[in-house]
Amino acid sequence: MAVNKKNIVVVGGGFAGINFIKSLKNESQYNITLVDINNYNFFPPLIYQVATAFIESSNISMPFRKMFKKNKNFNFHLGKLVNIDSANNIIHTDAGVIPYDHLVLALGTETNYFGMENVKKNAFPMKNITDALAIRNKILLNLEDYILHPEDTNRDAYLNIVVAGGGPSGVEISGMIAELSDRIVTKEYPELAGLKPKIHLVDAAPVLLGPMSKIAQQEAKDVLERLGIKITLNVAVKDYQNDIVVLSDDTQIHTKTLIWTSGVIARELPGIPEDKIGRGRRVLVDQYNAVQGFDNVYAIGDICFQTTDGSYPNGHPQLAQVAMQQGTLLAKNIVAKDNNQSEKPFAYWDKGSMAVISRYRAVADLPNFSFKGFFAWMTWLLIHLVPIAGFRNKWKLLGNWLWSFYSANSGLRLIIRSERKRDANEVRTNQHG
Q1: DSSP structure class, residue 277
Q2: Contact at 8 Å (CB) between 97 and 90?
Q3: What is the pLDDT of residues 378-401, one digit of tens each?
Q4: Interior CA angle at 262 toward 256 and 118, to 5°?
Q5: Are strands 244-247 and 96-99 parallel, antiparallel or unpaired?
Q6: Closest of 378, 364, 377 to residue 216, by C-alpha
Q7: Residue (of 231, 114, 250, 125) closest to 171 by Cα position
Q8: How do strand 237-241 and strand 244-247 relate by DSSP bridges?
């Protein structure tokens, strides 16, 4: 006798969505459809290494269809969420309509520019593979442009790099750029006569790595300053135009490159009522990650705001571990719910946080103690290698790391640009011409 399978639609293929789908791989009573604007999953904690030409983007990425090729209940839909029609249990994407019995929203966050339109227009975010490659191109182009424009009275702007945001992303990319300039630029750009990019790390907070321990904060500051990075705290970026970054104390920095890691905001969820949206545009959920007021729409990961966890009454931190744990538990709870069994409320298990500062230097805050230096760096390598999708990717990344960290010479410093100007609409017009 045929069994009617339930349709689960997952919007977003990040940590939360992927762990949810993996946890249902043996549940044949479901058809699972993943909706994402990209056809691949990537590992955000290592984006900065792609941006600094340290590793290949393929080392931290895998196509969804390849990732789930053994899952008989998996389907993929390349598209962008346009609207959620909860009355009819369907979602609209820019590529079609998909019905659901359970809808799981795992879209994550996007860059928050805090209403500064010039910054939004001119700065470089660092949220995905495309962003990382754009930063890599810009840094390398700036070196070439500095050499090609000796007559430019403002040519120092090519060598000035401003990083806005003193969290892990800002600290990590600042340290990696400093390593790149210290060990590569002087060897491969003799025209610069010993000049190196000047890195400015700016944050409105009084310390770097605000959520981490004082040991981590002081270590980050000490190591970055030894690398020659100028750290400016208690000051925010308030504008960026005409190659000038303006700080809140009216200091001006001439630069062709502002890398923005200062904040994120949850992606919009058209169709979810405004009274179900909380601070940071995060959707309000109950203890089982169901969107408040809905019994078959869920939100997991960075996009949700949950206050029912006794240890986190003001919501969970927007970290990969939260997303992964929520995805895994929600899968179990949906199965339990459909089998008329009891569900388990979510409680976050904090496994600690880490950040790499430079080659052989990192900081780690574990639940019971903090440590720094080479041992923290080795721990960071091992912990970040485990979640990488695909056995082959793990070995490729390990090999790249061992060679690149030892030699500081990855050989990936390629400026890759597309010369095609025709957009998709022009192609379609010609095809149907």
Answers
A1: B
A2: yes
A3: 888 778 776 676 666 777 777 766
A4: 45
A5: unpaired
A6: 364
A7: 231
A8: antiparallel
Spatial CA neighbour of 74 closest among 109, 120, 35, 125: 35
Q: Which residues pair with 254 in a beta bridge?
A: 244
3-state SS, one letter per residue, for 168-187: HHHHHHHHHHHHHHHHHHHH
At 344, is the secondary structure helix, strand, or coil?
coil
pLDDT digit string, tens, across residues 268-298: 999 999 999 999 999 999 999 999 999 999 9
Residue 233's CB: how many other CB atoms inside 10 A?
14
As beta bridge partners, residue 162 has 200, 258
Q: Is there a contact between 17 and 327 (Cβ–Cβ < 8 Å)?
A: yes
Dihedral angle over CA of 158, 161, 164, 166, nearest 10: 180
CA nearest neighbour of 99 among 89, 85, 107: 89
Tokens of 300: 């997991």
The reported pTM is 0.90
Measure the CA–CA gap between 352 and 310, rounded to whole angstroms: 18
Structure tokens at 418: 């597309």
